């Protein structure tokens, strides 16, 4: 069979040792830190009555791996959200995972930004519409290299942070998650087949704010990973 169009390149993220991982799908979770849920006008989920987390997706080709992030169209309010990214290295059919099975799916971790067209998202929320246009756009998922899960160690002992133009904007301890990584994968597996190469953005702490053209940023996962970039 001859393709009508040449195949598009497969988005890939790099590992710290110079290999690459083809990206299958980008899953994201919203309102996973109570302080961020409150600043967005939502009531944080109580641990004993969490229900289903807020889940959404971005296209695989939304990743940016060289740090040069194009300011998106149709917005005047581009917001940063620094997040730990879990990178899956195994498949799981739809169904109920145990915590051990969920943990075994994770190959490694990266640090990334869930960039958001906040004004478009707010318009959609006000009309009770899906807010894909506020989240799932080109260049909306800058991401660092990936380290193996074994090198990250105990995630609850780590912090994520973001500096913009040398000033600290966001900082959050991963022990403050409402849903930790196995929790998120268990919820995702009820809805989707999980695949190796899936990226899971796990939520942001408080103090999201606007980015402008020319801003330089550094996102960090403790002292393990850094993502440096610029809004161009």
UniProtKB/TrEMBL annotation:
Residues 26-231 form the Fumarylacetoacetase-like C-terminal domain. GO terms for molecular function: acetylpyruvate hydrolase activity; metal ion binding. InterPro entries: Fumarylacetoacetase-like_C, Fumarylacetoacetase_C_sf. Pfam families: FAA_hydrolase (PF01557). Keywords: Metal-binding. PANTHER family: ACYLPYRUVASE (PTHR11820), FLUTATHIONE S-TRANSFERASE (PTHR11820:SF90). This is 2-keto-4-pentenoate hydratase/2-oxohepta-3-ene-17-dioic acid hydratase. It comes from Solilutibacter silvestris.
């Amino acid at each position: 069979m001859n393709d009508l169009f040449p195949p598009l390149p497969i988005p890939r993220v790099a590992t710290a040792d110079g290999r690459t991982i083809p990206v299958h799908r980008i899953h994201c979770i919203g309102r996973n830190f109570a302080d961020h849920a409150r600043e967005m006008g939502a009531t944080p989920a109580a641990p004993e009555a969490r229900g289903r987390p807020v889940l959404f997706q971005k296209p695989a080709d939304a990743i940016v791996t060289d740090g040069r992030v194009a300011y998106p169209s149709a917005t005047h309010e581009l917001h940063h959200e620094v997040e730990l990214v879990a990178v899956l290295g195994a498949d799981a059919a739809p169904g109920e995972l145990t915590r051990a099975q969920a943990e075994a799916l994770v190959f490694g971790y990266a640090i990334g930004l869930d960039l958001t067209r906040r004004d478009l998202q707010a318009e959609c929320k006000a009309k009770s519409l899906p807010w894909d246009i506020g989240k799932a756009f080109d260049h909306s998922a800058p991401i660092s290299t990936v380290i193996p899960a074994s090198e990250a160690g105990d995630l609850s002992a780590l912090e994520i942070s973001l500096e913009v133009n040398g000033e600290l904007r966001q900082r959050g301890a991963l022990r403050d998650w409402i849903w930790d990584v196995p929790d998120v994968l268990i919820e995702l597996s009820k809805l989707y087949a999980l695949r190796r190469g899936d990226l899971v953005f796990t939520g942001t702490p408080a103090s999201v704010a606007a980015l402008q053209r020319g801003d330089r940023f550094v996102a960090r996962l403790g002292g393990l990973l850094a993502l440096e970039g610029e809004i161009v």
